[in-house]
Amino acid sequence: MASTLKTQTDSDGILMLTIDVADRSMNVLTPELLRDIGTAIETAAASARIKGMLITSGKPSSFIAGADIKDMVNTYDRPDALQAAFESSKALSSLYRRLETFGKPVAAAINGLALGGGLELCLACHYRVLSDDPKAVVGLPEVTIGLLPGAGATQRLPRLIGINAALPILTQGKPLRPAEALKAGIVQALAPAGELVNLARTWLLSAPEPVQPWDKKGFRMPGGAAMGPATAQTFMVGTALAAKLTQRNYPAPLAILSSVFEGTQVPIDLGLKIESQYFARLLSGPVARNLMRTMFINKGLADKLSRRPADVPKAPVKKLGVLGAGMMGSGIAYASAMAGIVVVLLDSTQTQADKGKEYSKNLLAKDVERGRMTQDRSDAVLALINATADYVQLAGCDLIVEAVFEQRDIKADVTRKTEAVIPATAIFASNTSTLPITGLAEASLRPRQFIGIHFFSPVEKMPLVEIIVGKKTSKAAIAKALDYVGQLKKTPIVVNDSRGFYTSRVFGTFTAEGMKMLEEGVNPALIENIARQAGMPVGPLAVSDEVTLELQYKVVKQTQKDLGDKYVKPVSYDVLHRLVEDLKRIGRRSGHGFYEYPEGGKKFLWPGLAGLYPHAVSQPAPEQVRKRLLYIQALETARCFEEGVVTHPADADLGSILGWGFPAHTGGTLSFIDTVGVANFTRECSAMAKLYGPRFKPSRWLLARARTGQKFHDVVEDQTAA
Length: 722
Hints:
alpha/beta; 3 domains
């Protein structure tokens, strides 16, 4: 018996392959499974007794989840990357081609999730029946990891359902529910899970012709050929749209369009070769490696709380106290109640506390209105939030999250009042975004139970939570904080204490560099546009308005007060001072900042900026603007790593992408340095230091890494399927 398959031939000559990869919760396309499928095909081909083949899964609600990313992520680092990538695609494609042409009918009884190479296996079968279960989704998500389907989907799917119908599925990577898959023509039938095998078997017993439509003489592409009038426009518009949406930072969508366009104009065997060539270019490139490593392997580990101290027993939060019912506190209360946690939302007055609860009520009402939630569920979630101004109500809380104003005296006051009523075992967390946790813990009688839990706004939408470990923070506090983040189904990173921690500190370099360029006379439109073209969600001036210039200025002034003579002004200081102090332009909240925000209209750059900071006669090249904005963030991350603020490169990368929107195609700030090459990166930084100032000067530590070629990331060894 094969190690990944259970095989059984019944009295009617139907060979049933039940896929069951050992030690995996879901089946993935391991080399062993592919070997065993190949053996089964040849067995069926050689046996006169076998009339047909039926493929299903032994895993509940799961067919095949796709390929094992671990087998692909290191391809980029191989000296023969391009050839190795081509051969891997060709081998799998050839196996599936053999499946559909070995001369006997093949049916797939898809009992659950079928993604990527799993769906491609089904497409190579002559008949497909899918479980009529909402969880039994099918899809081709390869584009989301910088790849295209490399086992025939860019060729079979257009030939099956038409080019116009196939392209959105291929280029968007969104999964389809059973009814959608049936309507699209990806599967021929739906059935209850218990009837799948019988339905597939009945089809096999009807003596169907074991030939795919595209292998029949006279085959015509459904909906028209690639050069036909019905589809040519799709390619023209699709190419322009993909280039616009990706800024050409993500090559996969354009490669998919090219693979479909070229491959569907030739016989399928040549089309499959074309697909493998495009797949190889993507897999051997840095974007796929970066996306796979950071957004799937390392994010998957973080979501599984890989940084959690293993020797501390699990302790999920049962009753949470949230101090401060402003936007952050209200968002934290909502997210926690949605996770089923009892919440005490406290503010200085009952009116303020009630206003904070109203935030959750409004969000829940929208979900009910849009059909995403029942009224009963909404009422139950809202009932978990107790709005109050009475500290006594915090009794029994096992975790406190403080989210009051960024002022030490206010935070110290609520810390003392809270610790007077909460259990001695409770953990106290501050949601501060800049103030060092060790300093805030001085107001606590239990500094070992004091930690930072930094949420991002809006809490209900932002996926990242930054856990900040103070000098005296215990492993128990770290474990509790991570257990809480796990309950919220958010992605945590763990960093050590520092002013601004990791995310705020590095993000500040992005906004500061934008302001400095503005001060130098760089056209603000150029700054903003190049930032977006580089992959940032918004430009540094726009995002400064969003977080408010006033808040940034207050942080600068607080830091100046804390550090005294040791304080070094950021390069943004004069611009912030001028706009906030002199002009009272404090950001979007006031309607005036770097941009104007007309009521009911679209924002636009404030024309007065040209008077404050006249445009220089000679404007920098777009590439130089891009480098300044990206390199300063990556360089500051390297400093955080050198100082021990960040201890794991994966945390740095995830924090940069999920926290403030560093371009995902780079893999994150440290992956960006690795991709550029540490030696090239430091050389560029040294050149910029001469032009723009010492903030770009790489440290001796980083220069030493450059001399030895030491990367931040080693070869990936963790095993994760996708």
